[in-house]
Amino acid sequence: MSLNNALDALLQSTVEKGDLPGVIATVADRDGVIYERACGMRAVGGSTPMSMDTFVWFASLSKAVTTTAAMQLVEQGKLDLDAPAAKLLPEIGKIQVRTGWNADGSPILRAPKSPVTLRNLLTHTSGFAYEFFNEGVIREQESTGTPNVVSGTHATMNRSLVRDPGTAWEYSIGIDWAGRMVEAASGLRLGDYFAKNIFAPLGMGDVTFQANEEQLSRAAAMHARLPDGSLTAIPFGIPPDAEVDMGGHALSGRVPDYLRFCRAILNGGVLDGNRILAATTVELMGMNHIGDISVPNQIKTFMPMLSNDCDLHPGVDLKWGLGFVLNVQATPEGRAPGTLAWAGLPNVYYWIDRKTGVTVVIATQIMPFWDAKVRAMCDEFERLVYRHL
């Protein structure tokens, strides 16, 4: 059976079993797209099929794009990976480390032992944390009235550090702060910077922070996995007039457009003759930037409506580059050591295997994250890709 037929059969069977309402999957090598398929429906029980034009929330797939923007400005000398971020954003220099709680429930704070840098922000070693993976952030938000991260407000970013910068990996809003550094260094709002310097060169015209009515008319429904394993469509949307273009999670768009971004990284920063990064910068982004610190394989959820507990790659050591998780060893499913990858809350996944020369983007719109049925499909998809290469 050919690769295309094998992947078609997998997606079709997963949808027919009712494991998910719809899915979009794409594969490319260095020469171009070798597979793309939309399967199932945009909404469970609906009649509008998924298509390659279906609009999806990319969530944390936004992070690699924001990192790319920051690295463009590093190349130009407008940003410095290791200078204090407060040189550009004085407000980040005022944020302190939370060490405990006062009797009235307010946080106990002290100054960080070192300043937050752009490298810290891009590697999740800044000391910031997300509420869904850190119980203390939830408690602080409740005690201070700080809105959650999906609010797209300046207020949500003014949360305490949970660790000193550079001391641990903690998944976080660091990339949102990096996006604000891009704005400060470029003089452009983040979405405008992306449109001019990444989306236009790569032909990604259908990716945005602010979806218009036409794009929303093509959007897949967001779904929740219920305790009995069934799915239901739920209301969900990024705030249409967000104060901040949240570079960590707020992009939406077409999967084929995001594949174009992955192809550019796969090809050393260039696609169809349009270069967005120097090849040496892409190499730098694919190196370990957290030293002896490791990305934990197991991440516990504190907001089960948004994420399950995660076991990212059992038995595989994980590091972080600039914008991507890196597997130190080959995965059992086949990706080579040093592959660049990450994922987003609605069970959207990608990887960029520069050694083998293949990149994959798979998107559903199902929460909570790390859904067992979606993960089983993705693992088998990966095995089939490498078996046929």
Structure keywords:
30% helix; alpha+beta; 19% strand; 19 strands; 3-stranded antiparallel beta sheet; 389 residues; 7-stranded antiparallel beta sheet; single chain
What does the model show?
With 389 residues, the protein is an alpha+beta fold. The protein is built from eleven helices and 19 strands. The strands form six sheets. The protein has a seven-stranded antiparallel β-sheet with strand order 2-1-18-17-16-15-14, sandwiched between helices. Strands 3-9-6 form a three-stranded antiparallel β-sheet. A three-stranded mixed β-sheet has the order 8-7-19, with no helix packed on it. Strand 16 (340-344) and strand 17 (348-353) form a beta hairpin. It is globular, with a radius of gyration of 20 Å. The two termini are 13 Å apart.
